[in-house]
Design a protein that fits this description.
2 copies of one chain form a homodimer. The first copy, chain A, is of the alpha+beta class and about 220 residues long. Chain A is about 50% helix and about 5% strand.
C-alpha cells in the first residue's frame, strides 16, 4: 500500500494520521501542490482529479477522497476502531468529521484560493481573511457540538480517537497556519491537545514531513 | 422521525431521496433559508449550526450533516442498501459521493454566496459563474471516474442506486438551476436519467416540494 500526499495538504494529513493510528505501513509519495505537480500527466495518470490524497492498494486500485479512504482503512483494519459501534454514535462522529471535511476545509484548498486570486482578483489580505473565516466557522460549529455534550470525552467522542478527531486536529493545524484566534473554541483546543499527545498525530503533523519548512506563513 | 429541510437545499434533498428509497416515513419541516429562518432562535434550538438538513429521531436526538444522516439510515434500515458490500466498492461509492458533497456542493451554499456578496463585493454575474464553475468541476470529476469504468452500471456503481447516485443527482439538480452546459458529462447525465425514472428521486426533486416555485432562476 502507498499513498500520494504533500506535507501541507490537510486532507492527506488525515490519511497519514489514520494509517499511523492503525499501525499500517504505507509509503507516502510527495506531490508538490505548490509547484503544480498534481497537474502533470504523470500524476493525472494516477489520479485524474489531480488532488491528493490517493491511496494505491497492492492490487493497483486507486482510492480517492480522504474520508472514503479512512472508512476503507477502518473496514479492512479493525483495530483500533475509528468509529463507535452504535449507529447514533457513528452518526455523531461522521457528522463532526463532515463539518470539517465538507463545510470547512473545501473552501481553503488550492483550486479555490487560485480562483479567488485569478478569476475574482481578490487580494492576498482578503484571501487570508477568507481562509481564517472558514477555518474558524467550522471549528466554532464543532465547539457547539462538543461543549457540554455528554458524549464528548477525552476526545471528540468518548475516550479513544475517532475519525472526528482526525478531521478536527487537521483543521486546527490549518487554523494555526493562518494565525487564527482559537480562544472561542476551548473544547476543540482541549481535545486537540489530547490528540497531540498521541504519537500518530504528533508525527503526522504537516511541519514534520519531508520537504516542509520550519514554519508556515499562510 | 422527522427532519428539517427546505425545497431548494440540495443537502436536504439527499436525505429526502434516501428516506424515500428506504421507504421510511418522516415528516419534512420546512425552514425557509431564503428568508433566514435558519438563523432564528427557534431553529438554532434544534440545530445550533443553523443549517439543514437535521434529522430528529424518535428519542429526540438530532443528527446533522447529510452524508452522516444517510449512513445512519443505511445502518438502521438495511434494505435497499445504499452502499455495496465490498470495502473497495464502498470506498468508490463514498469517494464519488464526497466529490460532490465535499469538493463541489460546499462552495454553493447560502453562507458562502453571502460572503462573496457582502464581504468580497462580488457582483451577481460573477457569483453565478462561481456557482456554475464549481457545480461542473465536481460533475466533470465524477464523469472521469464513471466513464469507461467497469464498476459503472445502470447507476454510478452497478445496477442499484447508492449514496453516490443520491449526491450526483442532487448536483445535477443544481447544475440545471444554474443553466450549466452538461454536454461534457454524458455518463453523469445518462446515470441521472436512470435515477429520475425512480419514484424516490422524482418525487424528491426540489421543485416538487411545498413552497417551491415553478422554475428556479439561480
Amino acid at each position: 500500500m502507498k499513498y500520494y500526499g504533500f506535507w501541507r495538504s490537510l486532507a492527506a494529513c488525515r490519511v497519514r494520521i489514520a494509517l499511523a493510528l492503525k499501525g499500517v505501513n504505507a509509503e507516502e509519495i510527495s506531490v508538490n501542490l505548490m509547484q503544480g505537480e498534481q497537474l502533470k500527466p504523470e500524476y493525472r495518470a494516477v489520479n485524474p482529479l489531480a488532488v491528493v490524497p490517493a491511496l494505491i492498494l497492492d492490487d493497483g486500485s486507486t482510492l480517492f477522497e480522504s474520508m472514503a479512504i479512512i472508512e476503507y482503512l477502518d473496514e479492512t483494519h479493525a483495530q483500533p476502531s475509528l468509529l463507535p459501534k452504535d449507529p447514533k454514535g457513528r452518526a455523531r462522529v461522521r457528522g463532526l468529521a463532515q463539518i470539517v471535511a465538507c463545510d470547512g476545509h473545501p473552501l481553503l484548498v488550492p483550486r479555490v484560493r487560485n480562483y479567488l486570486e485569478k478569476e475574482l482578483k481578490i487580494d492576498e489580505a482578503a484571501r487570508t481573511r477568507w481562509c481564517q473565516h472558514w477555518l474558524m466557522e467550522a471549528l466554532k460549529a464543532v465547539e457547539t457540538h462538543l461543549a457540554g455534550n455528554k458524549e464528548t470525552g477525552r476526545y471528540c467522542h468518548g475516550n479513544s480517537p475517532t475519525l472526528a478527531d482526525i478531521c478536527v486536529a487537521t483543521q486546527v493545524f490549518g487554523a494555526k497556519f493562518f494565525n487564527c484566534d482559537t480562544a472561542p473554541v476551548p473544547t476543540v483546543m482541549r481535545v486537540f491537545s489530547e490528540c497531540m499527545k498521541l504519537d500518530a498525530f504528533d508525527k503526522s503533523h504537516p511541519l514534520k514531513q519531508p520537504g516542509a519548512p520550519k514554519e508556515v506563513k499562510h
